[in-house]
Please model this.
Amino acid sequence: MAFQARMYTDSETATVTIRLVGDLDSGSAGRLNELIAEASREPVRRLVLLMDRLSYLSSAGLRCLVYAHQKLGPGTDIVLVGTRAEVADTIRLTGLDHSVIMQDPADV
Amino acid sequence: MGADRVTLLTCAAAGRRVAEFVSSLAGQVGLAEGPAYRLRLAADEIVTNIGVHGYHGRPGPVELVGGVEPDAVWLSIIDEAPAFDPTTHDPGPRLAAGPSHAGEGGFGLFLALRGLDDFRYRRTGGRNENTLIMRRPVDTTARPRRTETS
Model:
């Protein structure tokens, strides 16, 4: 499924929200990294990734999470909302779930 | 024994063709969503690794051959890069390093091998042959068959 990513910024709360749709793999990870780099130009307290329509995540997509962690710094919370089971399993297998906050949509 | 076979070149679009091939193979036997997802992930990671490390980022040929047995679905990924056995890769240092690690990679082969029920590697005829296997409930009515992509 074709990858789409749309970013919204709330300057008052320093919150950046990115909705992810489709497959995040080696062919599409560059697009998300571009948005993360763009977001990092201003202070970001919270990066929210809306994951409920993300159908696939490869190691290239995981590298985006690592990139976000490194680019935004330890003072930024990275929140994954509504992650599908298979995608969440991939994140947990690598231990990256300990570096992000995984939430159900109802918790937001 | 029939077969599904396709040959592709390692490039940014290879993941899409791998996904289509695995989807077709899984669909033919009604493989459950979870195993089908893990088979796609493993195949994607193996092909990506071949492109990045085996062919050093240059397009190179990869052949996909898929087959069905009464108790399993298998997918062989065959390339002409220098010999490399993915089971010799040690993911331990990368997993221990966490997200602050200077490099961002290192998870692919770990994810690939961890999600499969079985994996076999052999070097034959100057080519690497990686075979990915997912078990499935025994279907006593099914006849063995192969699917190939080149």
The mean pLDDT of chain B is 86.
